Amino acid sequence: MTGEDSFISALRAIAGHPAARGLADDCAVLELGGEALVLTHDMMLAGVHYLPTQDPADVAWKLVATNLSDLAAKGAEPVGVLLGYQLAGSDDRFVAGLREVLDHYAVPLLGGDTVGGNGPQALGLTAIGRATHRPVPSRSGARPGDRVWLTGAVGGAMIGLEALRQGRGDSLRYRRPLPRLTDGIALAPHVTAMMDVSDGLLLDALRLSRASGVTLALDAAAVPLDCPAARRDQALRWGDDYELLFTLPAAVPCPVAASPIGRVQDGAAGRLLLDGVDVTAEPGLGFHHQHKP
Question: Of 31, 45, 122, 181, whose CB is crowded by the most CB atoms within 10 A?
Fold first, then answer.
């Protein structure tokens, strides 16, 4: 268990409200006046989640996109965002990127807070969404016999970061991810479980298996790649792809473009098999937030 895991485990003793979903999900879901509000908050730290030398406009895009990806995993329609921003001295490019991404997704900025400070820049964003389907999808509904699906491909962000470090132009998948909002809304009425892939496919699949109390069996060769095939193992463990990982009953056709990559099996709760090999306790399944890019 990492320090992050231990801290979240301690917080679960405090977060007893049903909306918190036991801190085992992408978002909080707050029932309010006949509607379900979907709430999420992600942070980014220079040197951990983005390179300190990156264009602040791209950083702003990624900060918004990562939060909207959490809403996508709930099939939620964005309502607005609140920004927490550490002033950097020259902030015009960040403002330009923020305007661009919010205009692109037609999401209003509702408020937030700014602070000064030294050291690596810290950023936070709270995204608010409206559920489009009830019950709101969670990580915890996968059942034996379900098929495991993935939108898009993995590995593109890994290649994009390498391109960014080398000054090449093909770094867009890392700099400006595209949350699957439309797919999430289409999937919400059908899935048994759903989450976004932010910290690596294997690590996030393990989280889904734990939340659902099932065994997930994945076929590595079935996972689409956005990188050379020789780097498949790395791509399965690399984060920042922001695709949707979800489960559907075997008889239910998938309503969006996606690939079947495995099955949910009877077996030990919170177990992950890759090509038949138990990798549950294997180190390095994905990104942990103490690590640097």
Answer: 181
Instruction: Provide the 10 A C-beta neighbour count for residue 234.
Output: 16
Looking at the DSSP bridge assignments, the partners of residue 84 are: 113, 124
| Terminal alpha carbon distance of the chain | 21
Q: What DSSP letter does each residue of 11-48 carry, written as one string?
A: HHTT--SGGGGGG-SSSEEEEETTEEEEEEEEEEEBTT
Closest CA to 209 of 104, 160, 279: 279
Cα–Cα distance for residue pair 281/64, rounded to 1 Å: 32
- What is the tens place of the pLDDT at every residue in 21-72? 877 788 999 998 889 999 999 999 999 999 999 999 999 999 999 999 999 9
Contact 136, 227 (CB under 8 A): no
Which residue type occupies 107?
V
